[in-house]
Amino acid sequence: MTMFSKKKETKEHPIRFFSKDKMKTNTKKKVKDRKLIHRLYGLIALIVFICVIAAAVIFTYSSKVEEASQSLDQSARFQQQFSDLVTELNTTSIKYYQLVSSGYDKNAAEDAESSISNARVIFDELNQTIHEDSPLHNYFVNLDTAIADYRSIYDENFTSIFVGDEQNRIAMRVTPVIERNLQVIENVNSRIVEQLALDREAVSEEMESALQTSSVVIMVALVMLIIVPLISLTLFASSLKHGVRYVMDRIKHYHEGDLTFTQGQSRHDEFGLIDLRLSEMGERLDQLMKRSQMVAAEVIDVVKTTATQSNKQMQGMEDIEQMMQTFNEEMEKQADSTGTISATTEEVSASAEEIQTSMHHMNTRLQEVKTISNDGKDLMTALESTMHALSTQTHSTKQRIDSIESKLDHITSFIQGIDDIADQTNLLAINASIEAAKAGKEGRTFAVVADEIRKLSQGTNTFSDQTKEVLASLLEEVEAVVKTFETFEVQTNQSLDQTKQSTALFETIAVDNSRLTQEQSEINQSVEQINVAIEDVASSVTELANGATGLQEKIKEVTNIIEDQAKRQQALTTNVNSLESTAGRLVE
């Protein structure tokens, strides 16, 4: 099969590559379908939202319980202060009775004045905490009147010494007021104590209700905090696991040499995009390998044809060399004996004709070799362009693999975010355990829930570690693919260098053929001169002898030229063999 028929087959069966616009359109369409990162963002947002809601609910109902507890504390403090107020008023009454019954006593008077002052201070503090619409307001009005009466009694009667009748008059004025105030204090005390008991009971019921409601709501919130993230993480882990298997299945088939592998189902997330890029890469590599094999086969055919022509040319050169040796011997005989000039002239004429015929045949062969060399040069130039395109596409594919490795690192950072959320959940569980320990018996249920949250956090950490191991394995596979493409790129560059060398060899062959053509032209001129010399032999023996001598010299030059041509032809044969070996390595 000739080189021209090979070119025709190449045109009839072109290699089809995917257009860049079509690839960009498919890539944009797939990018719109990516959902894995969005799912991860949604999962993180959902977990954070549930944590915030649970914390808000727990804080709200804890605040209600705290408010009820503060109300109880305020009621207890109020009751304690009111008890102190009643004690001070009773102490004042006792001191007043002592003064009107036993006579003036400075210490008793000072104690009475101190008690009434303390009672006024306590009363003012309590009165500030009571609203006008409170049921206790009217009672405190009576207490205010009693304190004012006691102060008035002290200011009017016990600020100076009294004895005798003055003591009796003071006793008659003071005793009814003291008895009335004691009765008022007793009535107010009983009513206020009763009211405080009712208020404390209501607050206790409110606190108990708040505790029960808080326990139920906190339990529900914590259950949601456990179940929703657990289900979400399980679904995300399942999707991630299937995605990794999806990509690893294609990588496995590529590793086994199946570049035409097709997935049974499609995905619309990042793993689907990775599989799409790997699929496009596999198709391009398969097409490039097929085209490389076709080009290598064409190069081998051209090299074989060139080798055949070179061998024929070498055989022709050997024939010419033998012929020129014979012709030289004949010319020496002609120089030795002028008596055989005629016969020698005829032989020289015949030999010249044979030489001219051989030269014409050799010139035709050289033209064929020149044509083949030029075609080989054009073919090697096209092969060099193809190897350049193959090297560029290999480098582009390597960059895409590097982009896939970057995206896997991005997914690893997302998994690190899940670890951070798990750590925060664990910290929340620890804080909940501390709060449950502070709550004592009532916080046992809360402590159990906190333990469950801690277990969930530990399970999340375990899942994150397993996911990291899977991603690490995937990264190793991707790195292996990258190394494979780097090796392929190096081999492609080596093939490109060898193609350049082959192009240089064809250029050398073309230059040598040009020189051979020029030398053939010179040989033809020499043969024409021989023919002219033979015609001049008939006119003059002297001229014939001189012409024979000149012809012998020309024959020596022709012999030297033929020897040089044989050496060049031998070098051409060696170069053709080297080109054939290079083409064979290209096929391999």
UniProtKB/TrEMBL annotation:
Top-level division of the source organism's lineage: Bacteria
Spans through the membrane: 40-61, 216-240
Domain Methyl-accepting transducer: 309-545
Pfam families assigned: MCPsignal (PF00015)
Record's keyword terms, sorted: Membrane, Transducer, Transmembrane, Transmembrane helix
Gene3D superfamilies: Methyl-accepting chemotaxis protein (1.10.287.950)
Protein name per the record: Chemotaxis protein
Species classification: Bacteria, Bacillati, Bacillota, Bacilli, Bacillales
